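Morning!

As promised:
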Amino acid sequence: MMLSDWTLWLEWFIKSLFVIFALLTGFAYLTWYERRALARIQVRIGPNRAGPFGLLQPIADAVKLIFKEELTPAKADKILFFWAPVITMVPSIIIAAVIPFGPTTNLFGREISLSVASLNVGVLYLASIASIAVYGIVLAGWSSNNKYAMLGGLRSSAQMVSYELSLGLMFVTAIILADSMNLHEIVNKQTDMWFAVAQPVGALVFLIVTLAEVNRAPFDMPEAEQELTAGYHSEYSGMKFALFFMAEYQKMIVISMIAATLFFGGYREFWFLKDTFFSVDRFWWLGPIYMFLKVVVLLFFMIWIRATWPRIRYDRLMAFGWKVLLPLSLVIALITGTGISLAEIYDNQLYFWAIPVISIVVGLFTVIFIYRELRRKAYERA
Amino acid sequence: MSGELILFLVLALVAIATALGMLLNRNSVYSALFLVMNFIAVAVFYLLLGAPFIAMAQITVYAGAIMVLFLFVIMLLGAERLPDAKVLPRQKLFAYGLAAVLAAETIYLLVTRARPEGIVLPPDEAANATGTLVALGKTLFTSYLLPFEVTSILLLVAMIGVIVLVHREKGVQK
């Protein structure tokens, strides 16, 4: 059996260490990145005291959080109160296990694929871990024995379960386009064209849904301060609070990686650069660099949205998820599947190019529908 | 002992322990969590048998979707600590009878199906081929098309039923 090969164990160990290290430092510097970017948008300076450009700020924050007093409410459920941050943290790290960071290469005389695991059901793995991620937040809310925390936890579980449907359908769309569930193959299929070109509306819906899945603005309902103080982590302090904070930011990073992998070519270059000097086929180490750049750009969009958009009201959030995004993503999956099979049956690429055109038309109709609906409601109220 | 056997024994212990924990715990939130752990242990069994698709589907559907809704309901109703429920008449008798039937079934299966080497055979070769998903999809949409469609219609009916039950006419106060 191949498990007896100790070098394989070593390879897995090193790759896992690398991924965990990347996520942890990524988290620390994402907080810095977000604060600097938000400050720039709001015409402030942002953290600039600790180190050059405030680069040591995350370390200072970490030291502060470690030495803060930790409180456990007297009537809390002690066991779950302790485990909830851990349960939140674990899925946000292990979900990164299937994401490929580069092509398969030859290093030290052996074939090494740049992902911790290359599963043939990789996309399903993502879906299952994403669906488990709800538990930590729900349990944190419940075990605190505080009505604000409880309501925050319930809201977030309802929100995440609702938006998971559209997320799953967007996974399906990417799978149909790639004809595979293996993330390595999904990335390789995007050599000639990113899936964001074939299915732009799908990519957009995916980005919107991921915002809701990681509880970011404008969908940060569980943390709506005016209504729920701090939501599910109201009672948490010190390092336990830091764990929730970490999990949220790691989820942002990981979900950006997933978005990049499924719709924006993963570790690959722009499709029109594939035969040039900048191709990952020529230099494998360009893979992680491209991935990093894509994640930085996608994260910037998340921060930008947070800086500019107000929070959506809770009933509107649910209505948007169930009445707009779910039907829209169903239609997108249908269009994609039909286009691909028609192109295959009649051997005509025209059908394939009908996918983006029809999708954009459907997307525009959706926008018009929302606009008219909102205007109608505004008149009714007036 | 091979690594696979050790893994199996550990998993079996985890599965049994979590199942017992689910049954014996008085707090329904803990019971639900034990059940989640049990589902995950079963999913790893599927992985051991070389069926990753079923394993992932198990986690997504049961641990991810259904149990979250269970927890949601438990918390929303505040039903964490149930008072001692009233026992149905002859409940114990029925329980013992059904348990005996289950035990008999298990023993029968073990005696008739177990092989002398003590190995459970992996599932069909076709299902384990590299394109597991392709094989699965083909089987679902050819030999099992009717059950598949019947199931989807059943789910649709359930969905419409929920919408009808929850729907409120405009202007009508409940």
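The CA atoms of residues 24 and 31 of chain B lie 8 Å apart.

Hope this helps with the figure draft.
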